[in-house]
Each structure stands twice: as structure tokens, then as C-alpha cells.
Amino acid sequence: MSILTSEIQAALEKQAIELPSWAFGNSGTRFKVFGTPGTPRDPFEKIADAARVHELTGLAPSVALHIPWDKVDDYSALRDHAESLGVTLGTINSNTFQDDEYKFGSLTHEDESIRRRAIDHHLECIDVMDATGSRDLKIWLADGSNYPGQADLRGRQDRLNDSLREIYARLTGEQRLVLEYKFFEPAFYHTDVPDWGTSYAQVATLGERAMVCLDTGHHAPGTNIEFIVMQLLRLGKLGSFDFNSRFYADDDLIVGAADPFQLFRILFEVIRGGGLNNPDVAFMLDQCHNVENKILGQIRSVLNVQEMTARALLVDADALRAAQVAGDVLAANAVLMDAFYTDVRPALAEWREGRGLPADPMKAQLESGHQARIEAERVGGTQAGWGA
Ligand code: LRH
Ligand code: MN
Ligand code: MN
């Protein structure tokens, strides 16, 4: 008998993790971007790679796009291409962080013509959503300042709110706006949306379909991220995750690589707060694979999320509650740790096989010759990379 009960298996069955198109393009640091054979040259090839991850894991049925990195003439054709490969197009990410105009801000800018341009970019992203069938518009702003006195902090919050109201008003049907926060970078003194509180304060004024996006790499070291997860779920405002892991700042490394225990704690609070398999909470990756193989990096990532989800589902909730109520500190902690230390990998391999998936998706990809095939096919042209 599997250690994964039928209830746990049913929860795992529904798990869906969205992949970022940019994970398949070249990336690096400000020091170097490495090119690698077989890297996609356009959004169509990025989607093909994402579909390969889904084919082997059954965990990644949608792909997030970043505009203009994934700009194409015909979004319906891109949608058809995705669907023909068994995946759908997901979150549309806006981008106001790479144009000269936005040096001093975008949706917060002092100059009305630049702020207008930034709002219009978001309205165009919603046009894209209409064509791709995407539900979520994700906004992350690089807006901020480097020196005390450089910017009017208060005025920028007011302009941000005006801008967001206009963007939100353009959404229709099920469409949503999710506002991501990040405590610093590229701005070093102040950031206009630095924390979950600011994001919450902004989206709370917009309406029900405006939510917070929590990127796990966007917090100061030592931040209790699972507490934020709990609070946002409690408030009904956790719209999405950008999963990744970090050792230092916004490292965008493979989720669960730096601190699997933190990922377990986050997923435990997701389950506790009713966020697992809840359509209101989107699970996305936001990662780059600078030095490792990108398809394998994405496979490893979704498996890490699945493994920690399975472990978190193993927590004996009744025993935990009893120990908490009894004030039995060590027993409560032991309940959590027992689940965390359970190796679920053999049970997940078995479960995968039962669904017609490879027991070991990493091995399956390595032995399939798929990488050699795309390397042979993708010659000429310009490889997609950070910023394209
Ligand atoms: C900003 C961020 C945001 C962007 C992505 C490329 O650091 O996390 O989500 O869209 O990186
Ligand atoms: Mn992010
Ligand atoms: Mn980031």
C-alpha cells in the first residue's frame, strides 16, 4: 500500500504548475548570459519546450508569457500551437522595466505622458489576454528610487493607484489583476511596491478580481514567508505564486533547491488555508536556468513542488491540532517534522507509472534523445534570451 492515501492522491492529481516562457530562453547575470545549443528562438519553440515538461510530468499544463518578450503577430496562432501540444497559455506578464522612458518609473511616473504610455502597455497586455484566453495580468514594477529625497514617495503611491484603477477597469469576465511585490532591485533606496502590505493596500481598493502575487524570492533574508501566505489566504487575496529559491537576493534558482523545508512550510500553509487546487490561487514558477539545462531544470522544479506538496499533505492534522491545544510544543513540532522527513519519491514514482507517465521524468528526458533533436533542429536564427 502506498503511503499516499487515496485522498492525497486525489489532491496531487489536480495539481497544476504554470511554467514561465522565459525559463527556456537564455539568461544570466549582469556579468554574462550564456548561450546554449537547442535554446528556443521564438515563443513557439519556448512553448514546445514547456509542453515537453508537461508531457513527462503531467504537472505543467500552462505557460506564462512576458510581453514584449513573447510578442507575436498572431496570438490566436500561438494559442492554437500551445493547445495542439497539450498546454494552454496562462498569465500575461507586463514589462515596464526595460525601456529608457521608464528610468524614473512607469505607473508611478511624475510625467503624465510616460505614465500614460505605461498604462497603455497594460491595456495592450489585456488585449493579448483576450486573444490567448488568459485569465491573469501580472504586474511587477521596477519603480523606485536610489537616494533619499529623489522621489515623492506619497505622490507615487497615489499615481500608482490611479494607474491601477484604469487598468483594472479594462478587465472583463473572469480576468484578474495580480500585483507582485519585491523589497528591492533594481531600485536600492525605495521601491514603490516593496512588500505584501503595499500590494494588498493597492489591490484592496480595486475590487474582488485584484489580488497579490507572492514571489518567494522577493523577501528580505529571514522573512517568515509562510506567515504571509497564511495571512493573504486568510484575507482572500493570495492570487498567485511565483515560485523559485534564493540564497542571497532575487536569485531565481530552482524552487526547493535552496531550502526545501521552507517550501514544505509554505505548502503546509497553502493546504491549511484552502489554497491547494483552489482556482483562485495560481501556482507559477518564475525562474531562470543560467548554467543548467533548462528543460531538465523545469522538470526538477515541478517535481520539487510536487514532492513537498505530498509531504505537506502527509501532516497528521488531527494530531497536530491536539498537540497545539494541549500546549505540547515538542509533540506539535514532531508531527510536522515527521511529515517533512518522509521520503515520498518512491510512492510518487509508482503513482506516476499508474498514470502512464515515466516513473523518473528526469531520466526519461535524458534517455529520450529529445535534447539532441532540438539541438539539431534549432540551428540559425537568434536564440531567445532575457529581454527577448
Ligand atoms: C521581477 C520578477 C517579475 C518579472 C520577472 C521576470 O524580479 O520576479 O516577476 O516579471 O522577475
Ligand atoms: Mn516574479
Ligand atoms: Mn524576481
Automatic annotation (TrEMBL):
An individual GO BP term: L-lyxose metabolic process
GO MF term set: L-rhamnose isomerase activity; manganese ion binding
Alphabetized UniProt keyword annotations: Cytoplasm, Isomerase, Manganese, Metal-binding, Rhamnose metabolism
InterPro entries in alphabetical order: L-rhamnose_isomerase, Rhamnose_iso-rel, Rhamnose_isomerase, Xyl_isomerase-like_sf
Pfam families xref list: RhaA
SUPFAM superfamilies (alphabetical): Xylose isomerase-like (SSF51658)
EC number: 5.3.1.14
Isomerase is among the record's keywords: yes
Alphabetized PANTHER family for the sequence: L-RHAMNOSE ISOMERASE
Protein name: L-rhamnose isomerase
Organism: Microbacterium stercoris
